[in-house]
Task: inverse folding
C-alpha cells in the first residue's frame, strides 16, 4: 500500500510541474471549424485559446481583464463615465443644430 501512495505522490508532483511550466511559458491552442453544404460555406468558427499565468499574459501584452466592466469596478466607472459623456455630446450637438 505504501508503494501506491508513493506513486500517487510522484504523479501529482509531475502534474504540478507540468502546470507550472505551462503557466510560466504559456501554451496556445488554435483551430478552425468550417461547416459547408454543397460547397457553400455556411459557418466558420475560429478558436484560439491561450493558457498562461497573469504575469506571462501581461508580459505578452494581453491585459483585457483590466478594462472588462464585468471584472473590475474601475472599468465599470469608465463605462458609465463614457456613456454620460456621449449623452452630453448628443445634447450639445442637438442644441447647436437647433441654433443654426
Result:
Amino acid at each position: 500500500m505504501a508503494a501506491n501512495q508513493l506513486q500517487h505522490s510522484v504523479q501529482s508532483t509531475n502534474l504540478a510541474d507540468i502546470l507550472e511550466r505551462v503557466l510560466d511559458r504559456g501554451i496556445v491552442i488554435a483551430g478552425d471549424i468550417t461547416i459547408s453544404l454543397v460547397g457553400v460555406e455556411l459557418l466558420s468558427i475560429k478558436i484560439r485559446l491561450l493558457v498562461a499565468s497573469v504575469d506571462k499574459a501581461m508580459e505578452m501584452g494581453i491585459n483585457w481583464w483590466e478594462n472588462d466592466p464585468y471584472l473590475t469596478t474601475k472599468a465599470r466607472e469608465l463605462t458609465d463615465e463614457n456613456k454620460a459623456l456621449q449623452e452630453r455630446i448628443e445634447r450639445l450637438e442637438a442644441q447647436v443644430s437647433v441654433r443654426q
Summary: The chain has a mean pLDDT of 80. The helical segments are 2-25, 54-59, 73-99.
